Amino acid sequence: MPEVLAFFNSRWDSLIFPGMVALAGLSFLIYHLYEKRRTRKWREIAESLGLKFSERDDSVMERGSDIHLFTLGHSRKAKNVLEGDANGIDIILADYHYTTGGGKNSTTHLQTICLAKSPELNIPVSNMRPQSFFDSIGKLLGGQDIDFETDPEFSQAFVLQGKDEQEVRACFGSEVRRWFCSGAKLKMYFEAGGDTLLFHQGHRVNPEDAQELLGQALELVKLFARKK
């Protein structure tokens, strides 16, 4: 009996490694096919909207010198890039990737970003993100969070930070804060500086959502242009 068990154990051990290799290969193939399909869909969306399409364009990171997101991690990439002009507003949509850590401890962060540049903008360097439990702890330890006593809904929903608090407060007026507190925008991450603003949902979105993102970019430019 021990000899039989030893035989089956040896056979099982000999199958584990090839099985793991095959599974890894299948996972890579599925991921590769999914990414190709996603790129094809973004290309079709770009054509339907009359936008320029690039499968990869890392120069996107050079468009916003005050955008903190573009300084995080390493191996930064901008894929499935859609670019166009709307009444003098340059708008870019892209799947933005960056990696933190290294080796087995590395993490790749993926988000679909929307970046808008307009001469009508002059926004103080600032960033905003949905507030989490850890942000509440950070605030107790002295972390910056610009709150508005007259707007507890916004203050509880977001962490707002900036180099010049008074300028940021003036820029984030009641109309701007109300816009961010509506619907799914409560999950929005936002950054700005000078003539550039950027936002994303913290993850990649479906290509079919492109038109909605473009509309949000135009709305934000109009809102912040009034706060110059």
- SS element count, helices: 6
Overall body shape:
globular
**Strand arrangement, largest sheet?**
1-2-3-4-8-7-5-6
Provide mean pLDDT, rounded: 87
Q: SSE order in H/E notation? A: HEEEEEHHEHHEEH
The helix-and-strand class reads: alpha+beta
Number-wise, the strands total: 8
Low-confidence stretches: none
Short description:
By secondary structure, this protein is an alpha+beta fold. It is about 40% helix and about 30% strand. The protein has one domain.
Main features:
228 residues, alpha+beta, 8-stranded antiparallel β-sheet, 6 helices, globular
Description:
The chain has 228 residues and is α+β, with helices and mostly antiparallel strands. The chain has one domain (51-225). It contains 6 helices and 8 strands. The chain has an 8-stranded antiparallel β-sheet. Strand 7 (189-194) and strand 8 (196-200) form a beta hairpin. The chain is globular, with a radius of gyration of 23 Å.
